[in-house]
Design goal:
mainly alpha; 127 residues
């Protein structure tokens, strides 16, 4: 009987073996973590079993729902009027901007600018 020594594994084979071992260990550790329950979770489960009606309601607390149903409160009449004006402004259609003026295309020069209208009131500095 001759004992043959195994050939050394190539680097690729070693990587495959190590990745398989790593994945198996990862699965084992995840299963162990799932079984361990923290003391807080255990206490919470006890309280939920004892008082099932105290769980979170989907719409929030009764107090919050009641406050939201009443509508918005205003600090004073000024706040109320400003909110009312905002609502009117949202309902009014906005005028389309003037398409004849183009801004941002080029840097204006003095020749590009329109002439100033002469002032009706004569300046004291002009003479």
């Amino acid at each position: 009987m001759s004992a043959e020594s195994p050939e050394p594994a190539s680097a690729e084979e070693q990587k495959v073996v190590y990745s398989v071992i790593f994945n198996l260990l990862l699965i084992v550790f995840q299963e162990m973590e799932d079984k361990v329950i923290s003391p807080e979770k255990a206490e919470e489960a006890k309280l939920k079993a004892r008082y099932p009606h105290l769980g979170q309601k989907p719409g929030g607390s009764d107090f919050l729902r009641k406050r939201l149903q009443k509508g918005q409160k205003y600090f004073d009449s000024g706040d109320y009027n400003m909110a009312k004006a905002k609502m009117k402004n949202k309902q009014l259609p906005t005028a389309a901007p003037d398409k004849t003026e183009v801004t941002g295309d080029h840097i204006p020069t003095p020749q590009d600018l329109p002439q100033r209208k002469p002032s009706l009131v004569a300046s004291k500095l002009a003479g």
